[in-house]
Amino acid sequence: MVIKDSLEVHIARLEADPVIAPERNSSLLDIFTADYSENFRSPTNQSPLVDRVWAHAALIYLFVVVSGWQPASGEVRYHVRRILDLLKHQISPPALLRTMVWPFCLAGCLAEPAQEACFQGMVDALQPPSVFGTVRKALEIMKNVWQNRGTPDAASRDFATWFGDQGDLVLLV
């Protein structure tokens, strides 16, 4: 599959490159990481890490579109685990999660029960809640998936169905 191969090559390149610190205010991404309780300070350049999260999410999405809803698949579990590891251990500050709501939600929807608390904890850490409405909406979607995991129609669903379950049109950007 050409798309899958291309994404995997891209991820390998991203993982081989070191994260380089930018000059102050050099990235639009830095604006999203500003802390509202203090003056703006530019963090270390997180763009390669953000790119990796998005690339892993693209592979998850591609897998579900091609093969169906299979959260127990080794390939899905690998990419969910990679996204979770990147978000928990390498992305800083936590507010940067605002730039990765769609990948965060995809990974969370397909997370194993043991991983649910990690996703919940990342959202709980974001304060004030009013600034992170989209992240909280993503968590609502994930919780709905988690609660309906064992239902007979769960395996026949896809992301569009889960995202539309609450009657809202959801755009996670």
Task: Summarize the structure in words.
- This is Transcription factor.
- Pfam families: Fungal_trans_2 (PF11951).
- Keywords: Nucleus.
- Residues 20-43 have low confidence and may be disordered.
- It contains eight helices and no strands.
- Helices cover 56% and strands 0% of the residues.
- Helix 1 runs antiparallel to helix 3 and helix 5 (101-109) runs parallel beside helix 7.
- It has helices at 2-16, 28-32, 47-67, 74-90, 101-109, 116-124, 133-147, 159-164.
Task: Please give the structural blueprint.
Elements lengths: L1 H15 L11 H5 L14 H21 L6 H17 L10 H9 L6 H9 L8 H15 L11 H6 L9
Helix pairs in contact: 1-3, 3-4, 3-5, 4-5, 5-7, 6-7
What is this structure, in a nutshell?
InterPro entries: Fun_TF. The chain is mainly α and 173 residues long.
Short descriptors:
single chain; mainly alpha; 0% strand
- End-to-end Cα distance, whole Å, is 27 Å
The structural class is mainly alpha
Rounded radius of gyration (Å): 16 Å
Largest sheet: none
Q: How many strand segments?
A: 0
What's the SSE pattern? HHHHHHHH
% residues in beta strands: under 5%
> Helix proportion of residues, in percent?
55-70%
Low-confidence runs of at least 5 consecutive residues:
20-43
Number of domains: 1
**Count of helical stretches:** 8
Q: What is the average of the pLDDT values? A: 80
In one word, what is the shape?
Answer: globular
Keywords: Nucleus
Main location: nucleus
Subcellular location: Nucleus
Protein name: Transcription factor
